[in-house]
Amino acid sequence: MKLIKAMATVAGLTGLSRIAGFIRDIMTAAILGAGPVADAFFVALKLPNFFRRVTAEGAFSVSFVPLYSEALEKEGKEEANNFTLNAFYIMLYGLGATSLLALWAMPWVLYAVAPGFIGDEVRYDLAVEMARITFPYLLFMSLTALLGGVLNALDKFAPFAFAPVLFNVTLIAALLMSDMAQTAGHAMAWGVLVAGALQFTWLVFNARKAGVRLRFKRPVFDVKIKRLFKLMGPGVIGAGVMHINLFADLIIASFLATGSISYLYYADRLNQLPLGMVGIAVGTALLPMLSRTLAAKKTDEARDLFNRALEYCLLLALPAALALAIIPLPLITILFERGEFSQEDSLQTALVLMAYAIGLPAYITVKVFSTAHWARQDTKTPVKIAVAATVTNIVLSLILIWYMGVVGIALATGLTGWMQFFAHIQALKDHEAARFDTQFKGNIPKIIASTCVMGLALYGASQMLEGWIYSGGVQQIAALLALVLGGVSVYAVCVLATGVIKLQDVKRYLVKG
User: Fold this and answer.
1) For residue 191, what pLDDT is reported?
2) Most CB atoms within 10 A, among 52, 74, 246, 339?
3) Are residues 450 and 423 in the same domain?
4) Helix (H) or strand (E) holding 422
């Protein structure tokens, strides 16, 4: 089955990126810590990432990939590539102008995204400086995302999935050379910019290998581009509203104690490991495949793709979420507690991680639900759900911070994920390809039972290894490996014993997929 091979490719390379990312985060925690310079850098990093996710990986990708896939299916590669060139140059000119404007207006932009920094001369001035360095990353990564969408639609998933590895390796190099910069935060800001250029160059090289050449072309607002912008309209709103959640968290956290933004960042990095490996993998692989099957009116095949994607998401998301909720402090302590990152930082970050983990399965499955809407070129329904989710998240955050501080922000995010989950299920009731099949309904109880058994085993192991977990040195690493490998082993035995996964099926999919 092509979906499994595509997911395995993306998940494997995303996993490699996450390993490099953890090395980067361990070094960041030790060198940058959770103080004012760290807070300023994380704001500078989130700013271009916000616009990138809205314009490129948000509205643009979910609108562009189905149209490109449709053109590829019905008109051939040449017409599809002409559509790509048009979109590329429109994005280049539009985001190039936006980047220049943002560099000039950055002092005022920071008033909007981190108002809690106003009056704090250290954090505010540093954030302005670093954000001016990082913001052009938006242009590089938006163009990278466009080329990645093209390659994914051509069933070449590896190049775009590998690009984040370059990002993490570049930031590791920046940290190693941080003594040469004004602060470690400045070194990392320059690393972000260089990483964007490297990722773009990598995707250009692979696009050329796939027959997509970026010759100069005067952009023309033809029928396809107009249709793209028509789809992007609600997509921009939807993706923008969804990521306003992230900025709402940032804005609210900026008013809390110093270090709050950093706690959210470090906890989210661990939360993003399964979210990235599973959610991004399934969304990346599923969108072009589902788009093609729906364009070819192959409803049964589309339904099978939807159900298997959802099943694989829950198969991996449920145990990951439970593990993060059961052993958050051992994970944070072993990975980050050294150098400038204190024991109190570990405790606060662990509480935030536990709250994030509550919503992890919901956010991963929402990627499948959203893909089902986008594949049939419906960008409006996700917008309505995203608007409701944003309002819910902000209201809950403002309520919960009075009782739980920064942990309340993470808990609001987790609870909002489940609101979106049920809203999507309701919205997809009339989607023939999004109906749950018999196999899915039969496997879900088995997955839940297997997850519970793993959770009990993991809790028991964490109690037995408590002395090693907080001892430091080699014993900590051994404890972490024992917890991870033990949890994975127990879960694997359970899903095989219950018949959720069959070894012969795995072999068949990987060999013949």
Assistant:
1) 92
2) 52
3) no
4) helix 406-427
Q: Which single residue is written with the structure tokens 């590539």?
A: 81
Which residue among 436, 451, 467 closes a domain?
436
Q: Please report where in the chains the tokens 């302005």 appear, as a residue.
A: 128
Question: At residue 160, what is the residue type?
Answer: F
Q: Can you spell out the DSSP letters for 102-120?
A: HHHHHHHHHHHH-GGGTT-
Residues 119-148: tens digit of each pLDDT: 777 788 888 889 899 999 988 988 888 888
d(CA 31, CA 170): 16
In this structure, which amino acid lies at residue 124?
Answer: Y
Task: Please write the tens of the pLDDT for every residue from 389-445.
Answer: 888 988 999 999 898 888 999 999 899 989 989 998 888 887 777 788 888 889 999
Retrieve residue 218's tokens: 């005067």
Which residues form the domain of 481? 441-513
User: Is the separation of the CB atoms in 112 and 43 below 8 Å?
Assistant: no
Q: Is 157 helix (H, G, I), strand (E, B) or coil?
A: coil
Nearest Cα neighbor of 323 from 292, 294, 358 is: 358
C-alpha distance from residue 64 to each of 7, 96, 228, 386 (Å): 20, 19, 6, 20
Final residue before a domain boundary, out of 407, 436, 465: 436
Determine contact, residues 201/53, Cβ cutoff 8 Å.
no
Please give the pLDDT value at position 306: 79
